[in-house]
Amino acid sequence: MARPRTPDKPARILQAAVKVFARKGYFAARVSEIAREAKVADGTIYLYFRNKEDILVSLFDRTMSEHILKGREELRCVRGVRASLQTIAEHHLRLLGGNRDLAVVFQVELRQSTKFMERFTASWLKDYLALVSQVIEEGQRDGTLRRDLPRGLLTKAFFGILDEMVTSWVLSRKRYDLGKEAAPVVDLLLRGAGASPARPDTRGRRG
Amino acid sequence: MARPRTPDKPARILQAAVKVFARKGYFAARVSEIAREAKVADGTIYLYFRNKEDILVSLFDRTMSEHILKGREELRCVRGVRASLQTIAEHHLRLLGGNRDLAVVFQVELRQSTKFMERFTASWLKDYLALVSQVIEEGQRDGTLRRDLPRGLLTKAFFGILDEMVTSWVLSRKRYDLGKEAAPVVDLLLRGAGASPARPDTRGRRG
Amino acid sequence: MARPRTPDKPARILQAAVKVFARKGYFAARVSEIAREAKVADGTIYLYFRNKEDILVSLFDRTMSEHILKGREELRCVRGVRASLQTIAEHHLRLLGGNRDLAVVFQVELRQSTKFMERFTASWLKDYLALVSQVIEEGQRDGTLRRDLPRGLLTKAFFGILDEMVTSWVLSRKRYDLGKEAAPVVDLLLRGAGASPARPDTRGRRG
Amino acid sequence: MARPRTPDKPARILQAAVKVFARKGYFAARVSEIAREAKVADGTIYLYFRNKEDILVSLFDRTMSEHILKGREELRCVRGVRASLQTIAEHHLRLLGGNRDLAVVFQVELRQSTKFMERFTASWLKDYLALVSQVIEEGQRDGTLRRDLPRGLLTKAFFGILDEMVTSWVLSRKRYDLGKEAAPVVDLLLRGAGASPARPDTRGRRG
DNA sequence: AATGAATGAGAGTTCATTCAT
DNA sequence: AATGAATGAACTCTCATTCAT
Question: Which CATH code, of 1.10.10.60, 2.40.50.140, 3.20.20.80, 3.90.1010.20, is assigned to A7-49?
């Protein structure tokens, strides 16, 4: 029985695709360039992926499923809304902040078209937002979070802020540690931007 | 002396482009389809736009310059951080919430590639975020806003929430009034999502 | 009755066309560029020429008819084969050697296609070669020229040499006086390139 | 390992191109027509040639390099100026006289523009004329050729006559054997067109 | 399983020409 | 007569995908 000369071709192809998509953009990326980068023949790609679009989709699917899985696991050991949100935020920011090419693909290339976006929203993003929503619901139930704001708004706000943090980081020339932004983001979300004269000591306490 | 046989061709072309881009996506959109929609010949488009990309760019430029101008004007009559932010938020949400095709183009099609995004960020978005940033600075100076959070974070958070509201609305099948979200968004941003036991009456007041 | 604001539009257009054709080549030349060079509107050109090709054709027609007319006139005052051939050669070389752009158009651009070449050969070139042929016939009749060579060969040889002189001059970066080549060309044609030991004094006699 | 399904694609494409260029002219020739004639897909052409222009250029390059090589070889076995020139002339006239399509391409299509002509002159034509020039130099050195005529003039004259013979043949409807013209051409060049009563026996001696 | 030569559909753009003014 | 805005046909070349080896 013939064995693949090098193992894990699909993974290598996906890795190559991230590089090429990030460098050139999805449309300008050439399948043959991905093949070259992955050191396989053009045709080999079609043994593992239906077409160019399927590469992008698979990329998203694998990354998200893994990400969500890990997120769920880690959340199991965490108690409290603030800690939970911060865990999610850190995960989110570290995943993308730790791999610039992946971040470019997720923030930019994956948003080619409503078709893509609807597809992604309907599949993994829904799960991801459900994860967030669950934490928020818990918070609203136990009185940690305001109940006068719709849960959907809070979820979108949380995701929207994180998403913008990443996009901004991707487009910025500065290289800073995205993960460190998790804490302030959560703090902003929970306590708001407004100064409260009734809590003048707030700042001192939290450094 | 030859006169344009029908006036306002560029505007008609842009209008047609919004429709077609929203329907098909930028890449799948055919220049000849835009021409047909605008009721001009294919070649006529190239009298007013350098190429297909220039149509998209011009679309963004004209919309943003107008939007920012109006925003600045309206802000002149407004006092206070909350009111200012709400003005901006309403503007933002109403502009896009009032024209679904435009929203699709702005939320999805314009984000094709880092090239586009960098270009847009560098031009109008910078101005737009500066507008927001200015309001925030004012708030931090007069003590309305917390000073322990970096201004950049607040700006990104504000924009990120609005952006996600619009994207979510674009992708949702439900048709709701985006403009109405302005108030809760600003409230969330200013007061945070966290319930404050020190302010137990908060809810009652606003409920 | 409306008069043309500037006279002689067709001539100005042809003049402009020579410039543009020489600079860009016939195919790459844009009708609108010829119009700009001639300082007329694009449409004006079509009042005087059927189409782009007609500009080139007219150029050739006018130049050749004038050239042949002048040639015939001048030949009337000339006696002898050598003098006649030299008159023609000088005419030929001076016409083109005196206007580089025209030379480029005649040596290069007019030879676009067999269609053009057949057309030109059939019209003016035929007349031109007939003029040469006539001189040669005369020479063969009066014994000045060898009768063992077909008249057609002599005609082609004469024209071929002149043509190559011009082409070579057009493509050369050096700027020399083409007209001065007429005498040696005719001498070569008449006496040949071979040294004749029987006529060792030949050179001295002719200086 | 993938193999070409049919061998010698580039050669077949060039052959097809000669046909199509000769029939339609370079500009009017459609790449897809060349493909059809060569029985390959349009895209296949671009595996072997950069673009349409490159087909024409390759055509010239391959033909000329082969032609010059053969010419040099054959010249090695030949002694004397007359014989050498006649060898070259025969080669020249037979190459093109033996393939009407090729002749059309070389005499007409390749002379599209100064760009082409300069390119060709600078590459192979230079080599070709050098070959001729060498023979002439030899002749001038050993006293066979007149020294009072510049070598460049003789070279141009020789090439000009041959070139005109071919062009004339291409444009003529008559089908005659071009190769047979080599001898009279060389004779004309060497002995000239002028009758020399002083050398009645010349022909007999050298014929 | 892997290859890569071959395929061929498909679209942006140019520019000669027209014609309402 | 003159203009120049508008037209729309036409064509090269690219590149995702296939399939014989």
Answer: 1.10.10.60
Query: In this predicted structure, what is the pLDDT of residue C112?
Result: 80
Task: Test A114 with B170 for CB contact under 8 angstroms.
Answer: yes
Distance of CA A40 to CAs A2, A27, A57, B113, Å?
Answer: 17, 20, 20, 26
Rounded, the Å distance between the CA of A119 and C1' of E5 is 35
Lowest mean pLDDT segment, chosen from B115-129, C105-119, D188-202: D188-202
Distance CA A52, CA D12 (A): 33
Query: Which tokens sit at B67?
Result: 């939007």
- How far separated are the first and last CA of chain C, in Å rounded? 64
pLDDT digits (tens, 9 = 90+) for C144-185: 999 999 999 999 999 999 999 999 999 998 999 999 999 999
Confidence tier at C5 by pLDDT (50, 70, 90): low
Task: Output the pLDDT for position C6.
Answer: 64
Q: Which class is domain C52-192? A: mainly alpha
Contact flag for D and C (3+ C-beta pairs < 8 Å): yes
Residue type, B62: R
| CA distances from residue D1 to A1, A43, A198, B148, C127 in whole angstroms, order as listed | 19, 12, 77, 65, 64
**Angstroms from A45 CA to nearest CA on chain B:** 24
Q: Who has greater pLDDT, A204 or C84?
A: C84
Residues 35-74 of A with CB under 7 A from strand E: 40-44, 46-47
Annotate A108-167 with DSSP letters as a single string. Answer: TGGGS-HHHHHHHIIIIIHHHHHHHHHHHHHHHHTTSB-SSS-HHHHHHHHHHHHHHHHH
Domain ranges of chain C: 8-49, 52-192
CATH number attached to the domain at B54-192: 1.10.357.10
Nucleic strand F near CB of residue A29 (< 7 Å): yes
Among C112, C87, C92, CA closest to C103: C92
CA distance D138 to D176: 33
* pLDDT given at position A175: 93
What pTM value is reported for the model?
0.88
Mutate to test the interface with C, among D111, D116, D132, D199 (most CBs of C within 10 A): D111
- The neighbouring-strand residues paired with A145 are B194
pLDDT in tens, C182-202: 999 999 999 999 987 554 444
**Residues 117-156 of A with CB within 7 A of strand E:** none
Domain C8-49 has CATH 1.10.10.60: yes
| CATH of the domain spanning A53-192, picked from 1.10.1660.10, 1.10.357.10, 3.20.20.70, 1.25.40.10 | 1.10.357.10
**In 3-state terms, what secondary structure has residue A81?**
helix
Q: What is the pLDDT of residue B8?
A: 87
- A5 CB and strand E closer than 7 A: yes
For the CA of A153 and the C1' of E19, the distance in angstroms is: 59
Task: Identify, with chain letter, the residue nearest to nucleotide E2 (CA–C1').
Answer: A44
Query: In whole angstroms, how far apart are CA C149 and each of C200, D161, D165, D188, D192?
Result: 25, 14, 14, 8, 10
DSSP letter at B98?
T
User: What is the CATH topology of the domain spanning B1-49?
Assistant: Arc Repressor Mutant, subunit A (1.10.10)
Cβ neighbours, 10 Å, residue D47: 12
Q: Which position has the token pair 């941003």?
A: B189
pLDDT digits (tens, 9 = 90+) for C105-130: 999 999 888 888 988 898 889 999 99
Q: Residue D4 CA to F21 C1' — how many Å? A: 10
Given a contact cutoff of 8 angstroms between Cβ atoms, the answer to whether B56 and B110 are in contact is: yes
Chain-centroid distance of CA A122 in Å reads 15
| Span D74-98, pLDDT tens digits | 999 999 999 999 999 999 999 999 9
